[in-house]
Amino acid sequence: MKTKRMILLALAGAVLLLQGSGTVAAAGGTDTLRIYSVETGEYSDLAYVRKSPKEWRQILGGERYHILREEGTERPFTGELWDNHREGIYRCAGCGTDLFLSRTKYESGTGWPSFYEPVDPGNIREVKDNSFFMRRTEVECARCGGHLGHVFTDGPQPTGLRYCINSASLVFAARSLEQAPFSKEG
Ligand SMILES: [Zn+2]
User: Fold this and answer.
1) What is the domain partition of the chain in residue ranges?
2) How far is the CA of 50 from the centre of ligand 1 (A)?
3) Model's pTM, two decimal places?
4) Cα-to-centroid distance, 10 and ligand 1 (Å)
5) How far, in Å, from the CA of 85 to the mean position of ligand 1?
6) Catalytic annotation on 164?
């Protein structure tokens, strides 16, 4: 009886330890995550992108660094992409992960690029954000953890969501999406 209780306690301790180690444990003990690619139409197990603040600053430059790595927000109607109407893929400016498609972008009138859904739920991460005394949901790139913007529930159908994203967090790749495979099998 006593031995059994000891084993249970040990197991509970192990669970606590695993929870404490964060995203690595959450990804099943590996250091990769499943990312969807629009152009191949397939999922791949890719390594997380992790860099020091100094490395990020060198790669991204001042404004992108501030927004992606310090959770900054660009002024509305100033970014490169809020009024972009071309067909293509919006990717993470930090690591190149596919994030949004032109066909899900819409006119929100906010001055920030706005989308009603990401290319795949696994390519982004949503995090509760209670800063500035507001209850918001922050949107991050799943692969590099870069801050993209916030998601709100006043968007258009079919999802009713508004992903309000900084232009500086994105790079746009013009593509004809009719040719891209969109099957999401597997
Ligand atoms: Zn990224």
Assistant:
1) 27-174
2) 10
3) 0.81
4) 37
5) 22
6) yes
pLDDT in tens, 47-86: 999 999 999 999 999 999 999 999 999 999 999 999 999 9
Catalytic residue among 92, 95, 144, 164: 164
Which CATH superfamily does the domain covering 27-174 fall into? Answer: Peptide methionine sulfoxide reductase. (2.170.150.20)
Query: CA quadruple 72, 25, 39, 178: dihedral positive or negative?
Result: negative
